[in-house]
Design brief:
It is built from six helices and five strands. The chain is an alpha/beta fold. The chain is globular, with a radius of gyration of 16 Å.
């Protein structure tokens, strides 16, 4: 298994997710492969509590000027992403199921919370590739279409 390395400009990685044995083992394996500071979220009984803790940990560190990544591994990654995006304004979550999707979300949307389905704890190679892409892909500058569209609106 290849060693995961993170982009050094990020300070903390927050990991949380489902409570079954396979997922807990996967989260432990993941944190041993990462050579940086990893903050584990406790093990509440309900997914919203996990997401609330992960989102607030990302939010709190972002407000201190730190760039933080989070990874959620659970049964309902789509609901998790929607909940996290609504809970904390500085959290940008997305479900990424393949490598190309992860790179695009990271470059264009600037996600800081990766939501993976629980089945990825059995497909470790794919999961590690996606996590590696999530942690190492550099964001593109935030120049959006709106900077090109607004001058055009004045001409209408």
């Amino acid at each position: 298994m290849k060693q995961l390395k993170r982009n050094t400009k990020h300070d903390v990685l927050v990991i949380g997710g489902a409570r079954d044995k396979e997922t807990i083992k996967f989260r432990r394996d993941l944190s041993t492969h990462l050579n940086d500071k990893v903050e584990h979220i406790g093990e509440p009984k309900h997914t919203p509590l996990y997401l609330n803790q992960i989102a607030h940990a990302i939010q709190a560190n972002a407000m201190r000027g730190k760039e933080v990544f989070g990874i959620f591994i659970g049964d309902t990654p789509h609901e998790a992403a929607m909940y996290a995006n609504k809970t904390a304004p500085l959290v940008r979550a997305a479900v990424c199921l393949d490598l190309q999707e992860t790179i695009l979300y990271r470059q264009c949307v600037h996600i800081n919370l990766l939501c993976l389905p629980k089945r990825f704890s059995n497909e470790k190679e794919l999961a590690y590739e996606i996590i590696h892409a999530f942690l190492t892909t550099v964001e593109e500058p935030k120049e959006h279409k709106s900077s090109r569209i607004v001058p055009r609106l004045g001409r209408i």
